[in-house]
Amino acid sequence: MISEHFDTRTRINMKLALDRVCRHRPAGEDHHFRRSVAENIIRCALTGRTGIGQLVDAGERAMIKTRSGRAPA
Fold first, then answer.
1. Which of 45, 52, 58, 71 is 20 to 30 A from 39 (CA-CA)?
2. Domain tally for the chain?
3. DSSP summary character for residue 25
C-alpha cells in the first residue's frame, strides 16, 4: 500500500502530479491511462525523487509511452 512507503507530503505531491498530467488530456479519466501514469509516478517516488516537478515529469513520460504504445488509428 502506498501509505506504507511514503510520507504525507510525498503522497500529496504524487496526487497533484497525477492530476496535473491527466487534467486536460482526452484520455485523462480513462482508468488504464491514469494507472499507467500513476505507476510511473510511484516508480519515480520509490527512487527518492519526490519533488512535484520530478513526479510530473515521470507522469508525462508515462503518457508519452502510453501514446506510443497504441496501435495506429
1. 71
2. 1
3. -
In whole angstroms, what is the distance from residue 72 CA to residue 48 CA? Answer: 36
Long-range (24+ apart) CB contacts under 8 A made by 22-29 are: 22/59, 25/63, 27/66
Task: Encode 25-47: b = buried (16+ Cβ within 10 Å), e = exposed.
Answer: eebeeeeebbebbbebbbebbee
Residue 64 placed within a domain: yes
Domain assignment of residue 22, given as a range = 2-68
Tens digits of residue pLDDT in 26-58 = 877 888 889 999 999 999 999 999 999 999 999
- Taking CA atoms, 28 is separated from 3, 8, 25, 48, in Å, by 24, 24, 5, 26
Q: What is the pTM of this model?
A: 0.82
